Amino acid sequence: xxxxxxxxxxxxxxxxxxxxxxxxxxxxxxxxxxxxxxxxxxx
Length: 43
Prior knowledge:
The chain is an all-alpha fold. It contains two helices and no strands.
């Protein structure tokens, strides 16, 4: 299986999120979900 790796600077990531509200919302939801899952697993 092939993989591609992309590097995105912090500034470019911020620009991407500010120009794409849907993407920002999806990433935020994924972060919250993972944090909740991690919290459940640590108890």
